[in-house]
Design brief:
The chain is an alpha+beta fold. It has a single domain, classed as RRM (RNA recognition motif) domain (Alpha-Beta Plaits), CATH 3.30.70. A four-stranded antiparallel β-sheet has the order 1-2-6-3. Strands 4-5 form a two-stranded antiparallel ribbon. The protein is globular and about 55 Å long.
Length: 99
């Protein structure tokens, strides 16, 4: 288990059409640290955004893509995403309100 502070867990929000539609159901998508656990993600969201209460956290790991430049072959870094579902009585995350 990684020794991460709560502000190191969430890297950035994922802004796509699918994630914006899910916000109506109080589901928010974030890119998170690859070694973060579901419990750490839950604590980070509740501490960083006051008034939020997390119902559940779903995570997915995406491996790096192969990239080529001429004859050289490389790989991009792997990514971990988390979909955080808030409870009904929880406040919405204000960061996403203007989008």
């Amino acid at each position: 288990m990684a020794n991460l502070s709560y502000y190191d867990v969430l890297l950035k929000p994922v802004i796509t059409e699918k994630s914006m539609e899910a916000m109506g159901d109080k589901k928010y998508t974030f890119k998170v640290h690859p070694e973060a656990t579901k419990v750490q993600i839950r604590e980070a969201v509740e501490k960083m955004f006051k008034g939020t209460k997390v119902l559940k956290v779903n995570t997915m790991n995406q491996g790096g893509k192969k990239k080529r430049r001429g004859t050289t072959v490389g790989k991009t870094s792997k990514v971990k995403k988390a979909i955080v579902t808030l409870t009904e009585e929880s406040e919405e995350i204000e960061f996403f309100d203007g989008m």
